[in-house]
Amino acid sequence: MNASLTDDLLSQLQGAPLQQIGQQLGLSPGQAEGAVGAALPLLLGALGRNAAQPQGAEALLGALQRDHAGLDLGSVLGSVLGGGGQGTQILGHVFGNQQNNAAQGLGAATGLGGAQANSLLKLLAPIVLAYLARRMFAQGGSGTTAQGLGQVLGQEQQQIRQQGGLGGGLLGAVLDRDGDGDADFSDLIGLAGSVLGGRR
Hints:
This protein is mainly alpha-helical. The chain has helices at residues 5-13, 16-25, 29-51, 54-68, 73-81, 87-95, 99-110, 114-139, 146-163, 165-175, 186-197. It has one domain (5-13, 30-197). It is built from eleven helices and no strands. Helix 4 packs across helix 9. The longest helix has 26 residues, at 114-139. The radius of gyration is 16 Å and the shape is globular.
């Protein structure tokens, strides 16, 4: 696999889709790209963690087949911008009791704040699942089994962690905690400063 899932999806969202997401949330094009670039690895990495459990991969595959197969990204984007798309329910499944931490961490790391970051995650969650369904079912073969899905997402999670950067740091801060005490996002805020400070 050449491009990672995160990079591939981010490239598909370039242009009008990113503009529309930015307009919906009141962000400049640069802010929107930075925030989406941090949110996608967080969502895909969390899905990778869930799919590492056999029942998690089965449940995700079932959801993709039932609710997300055959949808194109443009129509899904139109639906979520119009207030549809089940973003809230999807985030509940993806992050469980870490949903608030995910939004707070993303908000702190990107400068959006928790509420705006949560809105961004809700917008992106259905898009990520529609993209994943298309990617898995288009290639056929092992991609259409729970095991195949688990492998693809597991590789993606590894890649995100290895690349580090804002997405990898966020993923670690949110997922590597077991809900004991508050997450320490101070290092992420420093990292975000260096990422966002370069772009004005």
